[in-house]
Specification:
The complex is a heterodimer of chains A (129) and B (597). Chain A is 43% helix and 16% strand. By secondary structure, chain A is of the alpha+beta class. In chain A, strands 2-1-3-4-5 form a five-stranded mixed sheet. The longest helix of chain A is centred in the N-terminal third of the chain and has 22 residues, at 7-28. Chain A is elongated, with a radius of gyration of 17 Å. By secondary structure, chain B is an alpha/beta fold. Chain B folds into five domains: 6-109, 3-Layer(aba) Sandwich (Glutaredoxin), CATH 3.40.30; 131-340, NADH-ubiquinone oxidoreductase 51kDa subunit (Rossmann fold, 3-Layer(aba) Sandwich), CATH 3.40.50.11540; 351-434, Roll (Ubiquitin-like (UB roll)); 439-528, NADH-ubiquinone oxidoreductase 51kDa subunit, iron-sulphur binding domain (de novo design (two linked rop proteins), Up-down Bundle), CATH 1.20.1440; 541-596, Alpha-Beta Plaits. Chain B is built from 24 helices and 20 strands. In chain B, strands 9-10-8-7-11 form a five-stranded mixed sheet, sandwiched between helices. Chain B has a five-stranded mixed sheet with strand order 13-12-16-14-15. Chain B is globular, with a radius of gyration of 27 Å. Classes of the chains: A alpha+beta (129), B alpha/beta (597). The A-B interface holds A 1, 3-7, 10, 13-14, 16-21, 23-24, 26-28, 30, 38-42, 45, 53-54, 57-58, 61, 68-73 and B 2-7, 9, 40, 42, 61-64, 84-87, 107, 125-126, 132-133, 135-138, 140-141, 144-145, 148, 256-259, 265-266.
């Protein structure tokens, strides 16, 4: 542990632990940032949802996009796993199917950054109460 | 490296720890390791979440799931279902008693809806034993800002402008106190933190020290800069071992980072903090008694003036503030005095932490904006009265405060309104009472406490309170007269007017406020020899309904003192001179023949 001698030193420590605190801070107000839910039931995990989730968390941070990535249970699209649901601030959620890391990259670049719709959107087949 | 994608925040406050939250944390860690998930999810032990009613609390982020009453045995299910598969464990979610629906996150719980957490901003959010997490929440940047950008007077002006008042009970303007201490010339000054929280049922300061000790350390250093003191002392009661442990860890970490010690932030400012333990005497919360206790003398108060700001610890100027007051300071510096002053009422700015206890559904630690009504606190945040009973009174301000009734429910809570209503803000204890509480007994309870805790230095407090207690005892036994009620009033006033320190000057408040608000109940005790709440045993009488009694002898066999006599199959009777009013006969009777009057 080195000594803190300036505001910059303080900032360095802050940045180093930022990621883990942000995880908590963002959860206080998730509507303000991009929310992504990854379907993580047995079928999802079997088709690689775990890797997709790790990829999303890592890449969103690298690309400086504020987002909350959470895992949820089965979304019911077992034919198109892994599935992810993306909610941009103030918009309706959109579900993407068959998401591998390549597709995830496309979703970040096109939909999340520019709001462009891309292939692979699944029709919403349920209403959540 | 896999990224941590989930935190499991486990409450590590004293309340949750007493229901084994450390074991929950341990079980979660073990289970995560067993499932190979320890690289993806992390267990963090935090300070108090405030929802002590339903502890131990485990909060999962980022999906913000709020689990209540978690047992160590539940850890495996949380890991298998939630961490691995993303399915919330429904049975552990909070059940909204009104809607009979589970609520998964704290933002939708009525308990949290009306709260604004400033002093408690990091409680239940960061790991209190990790200074880095505090720094990540802008910790110590208020100190850096003060030392590098402001003069001491500018900082004092910010605090003055914010309208912050002492949270220990008195409500003295904090900025003004700092200014007075700063103006006194001396070779050595001291910054003192009063962590001698002594009101029965209060745990605000303990929770802040357990959940966010660095905020207090940072504020004390800021105060040292303003007043010109290089030494800080925290007077904390030895009954708070966890708070002491975390505070000591925090001080050590701050020293390692050079945030305490010499030449802080390279500005030439020196400041360090030491702990002083109190033995738990209530009077030591009074600042002059506190200082005497720290000096190794008897914990007795002395007459003010001189105030500690001029003549304090070892005769040197000392700035004494309470834990919660300090915890507000860093936020005020960072967010500005205007922001702070925008919360609250005209003369009471900001928020207040209350320890909500007694007969409410949601017992816990809450922080609400000044100006909120008692009704909102008790019926919305507190979730109403336990068991659907009738609200009777709420006691604020501990042994120095008073009891407020249903007609005060819509009074906005602030320093001045509570005083006008015959109670006081105090340090933040709030005890709710229902129809089963006898107000004479409540007054007696608080007097018992003051009689125990009076230091004995001045006679009004030492003898007067004892006499008050005796009269109350007499009334509870059914031997009181109307004249006694007058005596209570007069004696109370004399004690208030002539006692040396705050303890005696406020100790008759519970008597005066109950006399004022519950006069009928006192009269009932005295004239009708009745206690409507059924608390005063001497005033109760068990009798047997001669018509309903079938002579089964069940009551006679249950009576521990053989007060019941009668032939088999003949109505029984209770000998009142032997009866100890235990109620055993009433429980045993299958024919509802035992009556309570």
């Amino acid at each position: 542990m080195s000594q803190i001698k300036s505001l910059d030193d303080l900032k360095k420590i802050k940045e180093a632990v930022q990621q883990k605190i942000q995880l908590r801070e963002k959860s206080l107000d998730p509507e303000k940032v991009v929310q992504i839910k990854v379907g993580m039931a047995t079928s999802g995990i079997a088709s690689g949802a775990r890797e997709v989730m790790a990829f999303l968390i890592e890449e969103l941070e690298k690309r400086n996009i504020e987002a909350v990535v959470t895992q949820v249970g089965d979304m019911g699209y077992c034919y198109a796993e892994p599935t992810i649901e993306v909610t941009l601030p103030g918009k309706e959620p959109v579900v993407f199917g068959n998401v591998d890391t390549k597709k995830a990259d496309e979703i970040i670049e096109k939909y999340i950054k520019n709001g462009e719709l891309i292939d692979g959107i699944l029709p919403a087949n349920y209403h959540t109460i | 490296m896999t990224q941590i994608k989930m935190h499991l925040l486990v409450c590590g406050g004293t309340g949750c720890r007493s229901s084994h939250s450390e074991l929950v944390a341990k079980a979660l860690n073990e289970s995560l390791a067993n499932h190979g998930l320890d690289a993806e999810a992390k267990v963090v032990s935090t300070g108090c979440f405030g929802f002590c009613e339903k502890g131990p609390i485990v909060k999962v982020v980022p999906d913000n799931t709020f689990y209540v009453q978690v047992n160590p045995d539940d850890a495996e299910e949380i890991v298998k279902e939630h961490v691995l598969k993303g399915r919330k464990v429904q049975r552990l979610l909070y059940l909204d008693p009104e809607k009979e629906k589970t609520v998964s996150d704290d933002r939708h719980m009525t308990f949290y809806k009306k709260q604004i957490r400033i002093a408690l901003r990091n409680c239940g959010f960061i790991d209190p034993e990790n200074i880095d997490e505090y720094i990540a929440r802008d910790g110590y940047s208020a100190l850096a800002k003060c030392l590098t950008e402001f003069t001491p007077q500018q900082v004092i002006d910010i605090i003055k402008k914010s309208g912050l008042r002492g949270r220990g009970g008195g409500g003295f303007p904090t900025g003004l106190k700092w200014e007075i201490t700063s103006r006194v010339q001396a070779d050595q000054k001291y910054v003192i933190c009063n962590a001698d929280e002594g009101d029965p049922g209060a745990f605000m300061d303990r929770s802040i020290l357990e959940g966010d000790p660095h905020s207090v350390i940072e504020a004390m250093a800021i105060n040292g800069y303003c007043t010109g003191a290089s030494k800080g002392l925290v007077y904390i009661r030895a009954e708070y071992p966890l708070a002491i442990k975390r505070l000591q860890i925090a001080i050590d970490q701050a020293r390692k980072y050079g945030l305490l010690g010499e030449n802080i932030f390279g500005t030439g400012f020196n400041f360090d903090i030491e702990l002083r333990y109190g033995a738990g005497a209530f009077v030591c919360g009074e600042e002059t008694a506190l200082i005497h206790s720290m000096e190794g003398k008897r914990g007795e108060p002395t007459f003010k003036p001189p105030f500690p700001s001029e003549h304090g610890y070892l005769g040197k100027p000392s700035n004494v503030n309470n834990v919660e007051t300090y915890a507000n300071v860093p936020v005020i510096i960072l967010k500005g005095p205007e922001w702070f002053a925008s919360i609250g009422t005209e003369k009471s700015k900001g928020t207040k932490v209350f320890a909500l206890a007694g007969k409410v559904n949601n017992v816990g630690l809450i922080e609400v904006p000044m100006g909120i009504t008692l009704r909102e606190v008790i019926f919305e945040i507190g979730g109403g009265i336990k068991g659907g009973k009738e609200f009777k009174a709420v006691q604020t301000g501990g042994p120095s405060g008073g009891c407020l009734t249903a007609r005060h429910l819509d009074t906005p809570i602030d320093y001045d309104n509570l005083l006008a209503a015959g109670s006081m803000m105090g340090s933040g204890g709030m005890i709710v009472m229902d129809e089963d509480d006898c107000m004479v007994s409540i007054a007696k309870f608080y007097l018992e406490f003051t009689v125990e805790e009076s230091c004995g230095k001045c006679s009004p407090c030492r003898i007067g309170n004892k006499r008050l207690h005796e009269i109350l005892e007499k009334i509870c036994k059914g031997e009181g007269t109307m004249e006694d009620l007058e005596k209570l009033k007069n004696l109370s006033q004399v004690i208030k007017d002539t006692s040396l320190c705050g303890l005696g000057q406020t100790s008759p408040n519970p008597v005066l406020s109950t006399l004022e608000n519950f006069w009928d109940e006192y009269v009932e005790h005295v004239v009708d020899k009745k206690c409507r709440a059924g608390v005063c045993k001497s005033l109760m009488k068990y009798t047997i309904d001669q018509e309903a009694c079938v002579g089964c002898t069940a009551c006679a066999r249950a009576c521990p003192v053989n007060a019941i006599s009668g032939e088999r199959k003949q109505p029984h009777t209770i000998n009142q001179s032997i009866c100890i009013k235990c109620g055993a006969c009433m429980e045993k009777c299958k024919f509802n023949a035992v009556l309570l009057q």
